[in-house]
Write a structure and sequence with these properties.
The chain is α/β, with parallel strands linked by helices. It has 18 helices and 16 strands.
């Protein structure tokens, strides 16, 4: 044995001769859901990858992708799951097979970095449609160039697409899915964006915010009672989106605000009021939004022009309510209006002896049970219709699976049925679920109605507004000339108790022996305060 052989164990730089395994994985991908649903690209990619593996004697250990994921970035669920598998697998994965390098990634330099890291672990990337020997410098260069060109092609597509998007926006056409509350329809081949059923509920939210100035939390509770559940933060984002009043803002518009061609959900005035962005009055009178001294603003309305009254303070002493219409010249003293309103509440209050109170509760309970029969029957009919519609959708799905109907017919009919189901579910949510504790509710109603004037007088601004709209849901109209007051609607419970008060008073005086058992929905007129011409014309649901 020569000395050279003896010293071979101390040599450096000798490449280790490790045999590369034949285990591989297959990764397939398309960019959009439409591509995944409507063409055979994923199946075609998988077929060619399998053929490539068989030809080269590779053993497929797993399939990844098989869905739609954008390759603009490498933050992809299936992509990262595949990378994690090949790096940690006990099967010693040595090859990743894709149909083309752009299926692997379109991120250019980042894709090159990922493949280099894989190579250090002995994992090679193979493109079926772009074969190259990536173990050589020239083959490695060729694959890197393909990655760069994929990114370049992606940027060109984006540039063209964004130019088209900007042109659409400048024309007033919204290019993508509209915000909640809108649907895209086609009439005679023309794409239109219109307000849907959810939008009608969101319209109420804007009006509540603008006119009642209540919190987003309270608005969310009201919407949930109507069948629409939203988070406070999402509602805040909607209130700040001018799309709902007919305007469009977008990053592509470089700060411009464009008038849209879509249907308005609310007026510009309501949007600005909801965002507290209306300008001050031109004559210098500052419109105050929430002041304890003026709780009836945005509640009282001018009987002539139907606009809400605002409030202002004159010479830092006296408060007045003023009609919002220019030229109406209606200024009413706040002190007198507050006294009139408290008298109206007093006439709606019910004060009776403890003995009569229990009889009244029994009568109200009987009335509620009687009125609930029709509601329960109607709720049963609506539930039955909902069940039938759900069954129709299930049968439609079975027909599609069995091949009895084509895809276009299936989606058309499914859209129709789901639209009908959404309307029925909304109708069902409006009907409510009844009272879980009727006695507690009756006690609260009696307590609430027994002392309305002082309850209103001692409340803060927000609670005064709640009481006002609870009793008079559509506000009160004031005639500036005659000082008459009228309201289209009064809370049915308050109306029932107030009429009951009158009947009891008449019975006590011996004027009549009218039975107190009457429905709460009876139309009634006759609150007559001492001020001349003061009357309330009431009708309930």
């Amino acid at each position: 044995m020569t000395n050279a052989v003896l010293f071979e164990s101390f040599a450096k730089g000798k490449a280790s001769q490790q045999s590369r395994s034949n285990n591989c994985v297959v990764y397939t991908r398309v960019s959009t859901k439409e591509q995944a649903d409507n063409n055979m690209s994923l199946e075609t990619q998988r077929k060619h990858c399998e053929q490539f593996a068989i030809k080269n004697g590779y053993n497929i250990q797993g399939y990844f992708g098989g869905t739609y994921e954008s390759a603009k970035t490498d933050e992809r669920k299936e992509f990262n799951r595949m990378l994690s598998f090949v790096k940690k697998s006990k099967e010693n994965i040595a090859h990743i097979i894709v149909y083309s390098v752009d299926r692997f990634s379109r991120s250019g330099a980042n894709a090159i970095y990922i493949t280099e890291q894989l190579k250090k672990q002995g994992i090679l990337l193979h493109s079926v449609s772009q074969p190259t020997d990536i173990t050589t410098p020239s083959g490695n260069l060729q694959q890197n160039i393909q990655f760069i060109f994929s990114e370049y092609d992606n940027q060109l597509r984006r540039q063209k697409c964004m130019a088209g998007v900007k042109e659409m926006l400048l024309r007033g056409d919204w290019p993508t899915m509209p915000p909640m509350g809108y649907s895209i329809i086609r009439e005679n081949g023309v794409r239109k964006i219109v307000v849907n059923e959810k939008g009608k509920l969101l319209r109420k939210a804007f009006i509540w915010k603008a006119n009642e100035r209540i919190t987003n939390e309270e608005i969310c509770k009201r919407l949930e009672a109507l069948g629409l559940k939203l988070a406070d933060q999402r509602l805040s984002d909607m209130f700040r989106n001018p799309f709902y009043c007919g305007f469009m803002v977008h990053n592509m518009l470089d700060g411009q605000v464009i008038k849209g061609n879509h249907e308005k959900m609310i007026s510009e005035e309501i949007f600005l009021k909801a965002n507290n962005a209306l300008p001050h009055h031109k004559d210098g009178i500052r419109i105050l939004h929430e002041r304890e001294e003026a709780p009836l603003k945005r509640f009282l309305k001018c009987d002539q022009c139907k606009q809400f009254y605002t409030a202002y303070r004159k010479k830092e002493k006296h408060w007045y309510y003023k009609c919002n219409t220019k030229g109406c010249n209606c200024n009413l003293n706040a002190t007198q209006l507050h006294a009139d309103f408290k008298y109206m509440l007093k006439d709606l209050s019910l004060t009776v002896s403890p003995g009569l109170e229990s009889l009244i509760k029994q009568d109200m309970e009987a009335l509620y049970s009687e009125s609930g029969k029709d509601s329960n029957e109607q709720r049963s009919i609506v539930n039955r219709n909902l069940t039938e519609l759900t069954n129709k959708i299930a049968r439609l799905h079975e027909k599609f699976i069995d091949g009895d109907i084509d895809r276009e017919t299936y989606w058309q009919m499914k859209g129709k049925f789901e639209g009908e189901r959404e309307k029925i579910e909304l109708q069902l949510s409006k009907m409510g679920k009844g009272l879980s504790n009727l006695q507690k509710c009756l006690d609260l109603a009696m307590e609430f109605s027994s002392n309305l004037p002082s309850l209103w007088d001692l409340s803060d601004y927000a609670n005064k507004q709640r009481i006002q709209y609870l009793i008079f849901p559509e506000g009160i109209y004031v005639d500036k000339e005659t000082r008459d007051y009228r309201t289209p609607k009064v809370n049915s419970v308050c109306l029932y108790l107030a009429r009951l008060k009158r009947v009891l008073a008449e019975n006590e005086s011996g004027k009549t022996n009218t039975n107190v058992n009457f429905p709460a929905s009876v139309v009634w007129g006759g609150i007559e305060p001492p001020t001349q011409g003061f009357s309330v014309l009431c009708s309930t649901n």
